[in-house]
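user: Kindly work through both lines:
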Amino acid sequence: MPLASSSKGVASVAIGRAITLGYFGLDDPLGKFFPQADAEHAGLTVRQVLNQTTGLRFTWAADIAGIATDEVLQALRTPPAYTPGTTFQYAQAVLALLPKIVEITTGLDFQDFVQRELMGPLGIDRDHWVWLRDRSGNTAVNGGLAMRADDLARLGLLLLHEGRWGDAQLIDPDYLRQARQPTEANGGYGFLFWLNAGASYKTATVPTAKVFDHPMFPGAPRDLYAFVGALGQFNVVIPSRDMVIVRLGVPGGIDTANVQTSLAAESNPDNKEFVRRVVAAVTDVPGEPVDDPYRYGDTFGPIIGGLDDLAFWVDPEHTAEILFGVGPYAPSNCNVLSCNGKLLPQDIFTAMLDSTAQIVTALLGLGHGPR
């Protein structure tokens, strides 16, 4: 099942594995790995990429344009909009820097590293997951992973057990402790995990971010944290309840008067109520105070409420720079027709070959079934 943005949570665990093995650190600057970066980008840290506070300018159109070119090159040329560490933005393309850092420091393709160091030790076969790439071969950690529900639950159990699997400590517990800490920029977000820790949380950008003045999952324990993907792809970990909840699929219904809230999984009250009911079904521990997720009436408003929203969605100037390789923030050797010395048809063929091979391998492995 495609995980959408729950892929980000899996990526965070993989980064935790690389850090545990000593390949790099949370506060290492990007300039350590990308010597071509200018001063503004070189000073950003791995931590800021993980908690989405790089401050780099984000729009959906520009980030999607990066998929058609090279997300790593785009991220290193994206202009700053905020002081690093001060503002949460649910960005996409900048996350491509994370798997690239793993590749630079380990000498392995990111997906090979993930299988060898994370999935394999958990007993997850390579034919149980598919991870797509962008045009230039960068793994799409922002949303390109598909895997089985039972395998996703294994990742949840790894987190529940503080990074330990059997006799092996795969993830340093200190990494997970920090990954679950909210920032001043967002009380509901850690290292690509959504958190129930904050008294409020800032949402994804659909089309603009909102701050809702209540915990993300009302009526659920505050130590809850989760991978969250569009339409309701969840891997929820609740240490105080010794509980992992996996939910994959589409929404049970769409509120036509509040479409964005229904589609943005972290804000859909149906998902919150689902988690609340599962938690409430555990009766051998003291329950949480009853809270109705529907009473808050969270809403994003119309998808395009005016010219400002339209400009944000389209972002014509920055998007054109990326696609055509012109302007101060466009990589000089990359545009939609030719990137990194390769023409568009070559890259499309390579990407299709890679994704097809993964999908066929996964389909051939379907007979293995859930364990």
